[in-house]
């Protein structure tokens, strides 16, 4: 039964060779010497033993959206943003973070459940050029569960509406008129004061 199927696959390939572009001989041999009973078997065979593949290369696997261990720096800002006269030890720690790719660019791998974890670190502070050691606690956020969700759209900036394009009266003549009126008032008031 297996031989009959292989012969049928072989005949199909030879028919294809004569009808259209020739198939590579290595592909014909690969199919002839493999047990194929469905399209899925053929697809798997072609994926696993593709013609012309590098013998040292592994098939690529999609990095799925999931929680992975990452390294983050332990910064002074995690403890005290206003003081730069100390160091923290260790300088980095492992955290759990979502990473990986989704099936389309419109989706991104994001955390849907997080957990805050508190870590004890050593604070090394220099006072009078001498180190002092103290225990301190910093917090890190671990991602617990990830999901592919639509990526947030960047905010749309509204264009400022331009002023109407109709004729404008210059501002200076209006100011001059007001200034002239004020001068007249001052002048009349000054004259009255002088006359009295």
From TrEMBL:
Top-rank taxon, per record: Eukaryota
Domain Platelet-derived growth factor (PDGF) family profile positions: 50-153
GO BP: platelet-derived growth factor receptor signaling pathway; positive regulation of cell division; positive regulation of cell migration; positive regulation of cell population proliferation; positive regulation of ERK1 and ERK2 cascade; positive regulation of phosphatidylinositol 3-kinase/protein kinase B signal transduction
PROSITE patterns found in the cross-reference section: PDGF_1, PDGF_2
Keywords, alphabetical: Growth factor, Mitogen
Composition-biased stretches (Basic residues): 173-185
One annotated GO molecular function: platelet-derived growth factor receptor binding
A GO term from the CC aspect: membrane
Span list, region Disordered: 151-185
Family annotation (InterPro entries): Cystine-knot_cytokine, PD_growth_factor_CS, PDGF/VEGF_dom, PDGF_N
Pfam families linked: PDGF, PDGF_N
Family listed: Belongs to the PDGF/VEGF growth factor family.
Role, per record: Growth factor that plays an essential role in the regulation of embryonic development, cell proliferation, cell migration, survival and chemotaxis. Potent mitogen for cells of mesenchymal origin. Required for normal proliferation and recruitment of pericytes and vascular smooth muscle cells in the central nervous system, skin, lung, heart and placenta. Required for normal blood vessel development, and for normal development of kidney glomeruli. Plays an important role in wound healing. Signaling is modulated by the formation of heterodimers with PDGFA.
Subunit structure: Antiparallel homodimer; disulfide-linked. Antiparallel heterodimer with PDGFA; disulfide-linked. The PDGFB homodimer interacts with PDGFRA and PDGFRB homodimers, and with heterodimers formed by PDGFRA and PDGFRB. The heterodimer composed of PDGFA and PDGFB interacts with PDGFRB homodimers, and with heterodimers formed by PDGFRA and PDGFRB. Interacts with XLKD1. Interacts with LRP1. Interacts with SORL1 (via the N-terminal ectodomain). Interacts with CD82; this interaction inhibits PDGFB-mediated signaling pathway.
Protein name in UniProt: Platelet-derived growth factor subunit B
Species name: Amphilophus citrinellus (Midas cichlid)
